[in-house]
Specification:
480 residues, two-stranded antiparallel ribbon, 13 strands
Length: 480
Amino acid sequence: MSSEIPQAKGALTMMAELRRFLAHLEPAFSRRAAHLWCLVAFIGLVARTDTLGVTSIIRALSLGPVHYPALLHFFHSTAWCAQGLMARWWVWLADSPWLFRHQGRLVLIGDHTKSPKDGRKMPAVVTLHQDSETASKPSFFRGHHWGVLAVLTHAADAWRATPLWAAIHEGTDDTDKTPKTVRIVNMARTILNTMRQKAYLVLDAYFSVGPVFAAAATATNDIFVLTRAKKTYVAFRPASPRKKGKKGRSKKYGTKLHLYRLFDLKSWQGKFSTGSALVYDHRETIRYLVIDLLWKPIKGTVRFILVETSRGRMVLMSSDLHLDPIAGLELYCHRVPIETLFNILKNTFGAFAYHFWSSYLAPVSRRPAANPDILPPSTNPRRTRETLAAIEKFVNLQFLVLGFLHLVAFRFPNEVRSVANCWLRTVSRSIPSEFVTRQAFVNLIKPSNFAVVGLNWITALIAPRQSAPYEKHSLDKGLG
């Protein structure tokens, strides 16, 4: 009996947090029915045991098949949008004590991920090139190109990239010529404006281009970019002052420096310093050099941090001219959790296993081919745009689920473990994993556990839809 009491307390605590969070999302919906369907979809995404698109929600909650069209309509509905829903998530996160900060700034992590899709009538599917050395995809394939932003969170010994927003960055609008790299910066600024925060934006070498630094540069310095320089990059010392009486415009750029060659030049060896740094969770002694140089792509000054670790050499570059080199290296090493995030989203949660398609699009070949300059025509552009929006809504709703599970694991680690009953898993960290946290909620949602949790708002919302046929506006009775 004594063991059941902590479990019951943990269950009630977690369910109360879930209800409070879902109530916080209500202003994102212009219709009450849409909000109630969001609750159903959210619970279904937590409880589902397979990743076969929207139908997995139907199976997870044992909903009547007649509710499948209504669930599809929810994702296509104009009563809400992905950005509006995620904005409520950003507001919820703004005061979270688990947000990691450096010099009072958040640490945002951005990256692209590619989701293979072979649907012949699926909007925004384009030919993509996979250049990652660790991916199992073919060199060229058809799919969606996603831009993703996450925020670095930390509790006890756990570092996680908590998802913030995802958007398709290719094949959506043939009139928008904004580069994919710059769109990540624009997304970050939208998030920070909502949260009323400033941040470091940590990116990989793909984003070490002039337009990214130019887009991040504002008078308020709300975004500092930190990325890795490519091996061919060069920078310049400022030119020496012009001699008096010499005609013409003063030179701006002085001596050219090949950044990666500086590691081996004897004249530069004495300029390197040594220090202790946390490199990918391992403390070690590194050699580093900090130098502010002119970089032609932005016609301005960038801080370059040359680092030599046990893993090799790298050159970091930042728009923050006061960034400490050790801190810069450790911030960049914290970019790794976003790769873990992608793995969890794809393999554990099935966030990109969607199957939305538009009957108004002409079928295209599944074979990779050169992308046309003009998008495939649609006989009903408005409905096709709604299908594209439904795809982004489906993915972002799962971002919301995973982000909420992160915060629950940070706040209630003992309660999660008492309910999860994952006895086959060895406890390796003080903070439960995403899988364990989800399993805890799955156990609470099971009908067999209603005796512990009690008859609550989830049963009142879902039970009538498990047997009763679909009726118009039936969701309006959900929380009555």
